[in-house]
Amino acid sequence: MKAWVIDRIGPLDSSRTLLRATDLPVPEPGPGEILLQVAVCGVCHTEIDEIEGRTAPPRLPVVPGHQAVGRIAALGSGVAEFALGDRVGVAWIFSACGECEFCRSGRENLCFAFCATGRDVDGGYAQYMTVPAAFAFRIPEGFTDAEAAPLLCAGAIGYRSLNLSGLKNGQPLGLTGFGASAHLVLMMARHRFPDSEVYVFARHPEERAFALQLGAVWAGDTADIAPAPLAAIIDTTPAWKPVVAALANLAPGGRLVVNAIRKAPDDRACLAELDYARHLWMEREIKSVANVARSDVAGFLALAAEMGIRPETEEYPFEDADRALLDLKQRRIRGAKVLRVT
Predict the structure, then answer these.
(1) What tens digit of pLDDT does each residue of 137-181 get?
(2) Is the pTM of this model over 0.85?
């Protein structure tokens, strides 16, 4: 089968190719697993974090990709909940131990044995992949494969972020960064909290214009001060400076939710600008988002079907995986990027 692999770590730029096209054997599903023929796979900033070493894979080479959608091509022994030909998706959570305190309490995203698709095991930048059946998700009817792919990561992590924000209807929400996840959060927020105004902070004018088209009441730069203090802000950027700026926009008792698997060290020095009275006092909070649980993926897929969400997507041919990642890094974004695999 055709696949892309990460086989070395380094900075991603236009002068080098850090994904390698290769042919691999089609994997065989083990007990309790399914074999997925991948139709599409979403492109995520986490792949850039893997390539550049911020969340490096434990082994190389590895097939990246954790927003895979396709049809079941084979069933391992003991799989009864799916049939051949069923359309399913695979998310960032590939497996967890199922026995620890976190797994038993529904917080499997915090499990110390958490296994990530496309980082700890081979993922969806390939024509086929395997996954435990218990960690595969039925794709609701009504979504195309390309529309469904970003729901599995950008949507699910956005769903978790919005839940962790503690937002109540009528309270204003801020979104810092406006890529694949944030544009889905804006749609969710308008549905779940119809009386809450949404304010967007983004570096690029095109992203700000897109946010206004989707219903934001205001859009400014990441360093701007919003017209009103915000009850909650969700940050989806890879940098530190927007975190400091977001804290200055929080109302007393407000919560900043940082939705990033890692932050780049480039602008870490700006943390010295933190002023306790301005940024943290009055019971302002900072909370990180770690991975997703299966309940986040299932919950968001159901909500997306109920809402009739149609994510904005930009499709790339499978052979253009490098270009898709570079476009993502360079913030050439309108919605979610998706690789057409088969």
Answers:
(1) 999 999 999 999 999 998 999 999 999 999 999 999 999 999 888
(2) yes
